[in-house]
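Is xanthosine-5'-monophosphate placement plausible here? Inputs below.
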Amino acid sequence: MMPQRESLVVIDFGSQYSRLITRRVRENQVYCEIIQHTSSWEEVSKLNPKGIILSGGPASVYDEDAPLAPAWVYDCGLPVLGICYGMQVMAHQLGGKVAPSNSREYGHSVVNQNGAGEPLFYGLPTSIPVWMSHADSITELPPGFTSKAYTDNAPVAMIKNDNNLLGIQFHPEVVHTPDGTKIINNFLHKICDFKKLWTSENFISETISNIKAQVGNGKVICALSGGVDSTVAATLVHKAIGDQLTCIFVNNGLMRKEEPERIQNTFAKYLNVNLIFSESSNRFITALKGVTDPEQKRKIIGTEFINVFDEEATRLGEVNFLTQGTLYPDVIESKTSDNTVSATIKTHHNVGGLPEHMKLELVEPLRYLFKDEVRKVGIELGLPEEMVNRQPFPGPGLAIRIMGEVTEEKLDILKAADWIVMDEIKNNNLYNDLWQSFAVLTGSKSVGVTGDFRTYGHVVAIRAVSSDDAMTADWARLPYEVLANISNRISNEVPNVNRVVFDITSKPPGTIEWE
Ligand code: XMP
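Reply from A.M.:
I modeled the complex. Tokens:
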């Protein structure tokens, strides 16, 4: 279900910024995909490319195994922009020379144009601040190329020939190049001549017709988690095929206070979708009895989920398709990483494989979207803001926020404490600034004093982080006032808790969750 409109392809040479390039291009309303440097033209032409970007990368072009661009890049007649290593690859492959530089550049620099009128720099002054990160430099231009810009340390900071093959030594995709977005925009719209077709509206209409074509008269099921991905995926499928879709929500008893009811109400209110609400809390809590190991807890919850889902789906009779909210980063991850890495990602984000007898074809309407794009599509679909901007919540839920064994008593304590954290965060308008914010039942007990009595109660931790993608995270500097209110309220309102601590660990070295 890939969008069949025009696209820009990013050839990935292993840069940490390839994803960022893709996002910047899409922010300029052009569809963009990351492809491997080994991809064939046959594969790539299906994307209807109108321009190519060669990414940066950690290699040197003269390394023995240095990744190079496939020949079709230079033969296909499309505009090409090489960024950093991408520019060096272009120079090297087209007959120029690249060598280690005496003056490496890492960090801020200033690029000066040799002359005016470059379409790539349209609307910008002749000197602009940029972000550099390179050890090699072009020492000899390839035939037909001219140098268009320089920095104090790099005599060749931009190259170009008459066939719209361009290279820049700096990184326009990072925020430290303040005019970077304009440069990318110029490449897309002044050089490649893209139309601005990548919009939520176009995505929705195209996806709906793709779903119709894929599903035909088939029956589709979708597991709702309450999160934005499965909600938006289900909404798109429902718009396409209506009652052929049945959603299943499994209440595992491990969600936040009032969350299952909220999900049920929202779906009834905004989507007139067939929804099976499976009340299965007891099954999960019984299965978790005595289990303390975090990975074991995850496995049990995953297996139990599949069992419940399978039972509910079986009752529906013949089902042909399963809708999943897979996102583009998961797709890139599974293409580029080795098995070990993708295996761990799976235990994190998927509940595990479906049983053999459930032979279902996948419907993955969000497969080509980044999270922020999913949110925009959600808004365009008319879903409420508070649902679309929800903080992520892990599949195993509160079970991995209760250290050690999960019991009903501990769940009640954590739900009550977590409710207070959320309430204060929302009341202080901090919710949308934070990637996640929640309470943790630490598994420690401590001595306290209430009135004239000494107590021995649970220690609750407050966890709040900012992050872009959960790969790294910084602990949030919550205002003291907010922390004080949360602490007072938890120790006054939640029985058996007499101490509240604030987690000041970033990721790495910590993880966001405690288990
Ligand atoms: P960590 O704790 O690894 O979490 O820093 C990164 C992100 O993943 C979420 N997370 C999970 N999500 N199943 C999920 O669906 C899991 O087992 C799981 N563990 C962590 C976590 O909430 C954070 O957003």
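Short version: Residues 298, 348-349, 392, 394-396, 436, 470, 507, 511-513 surround xanthosine-5'-monophosphate (CB under 6 Å).
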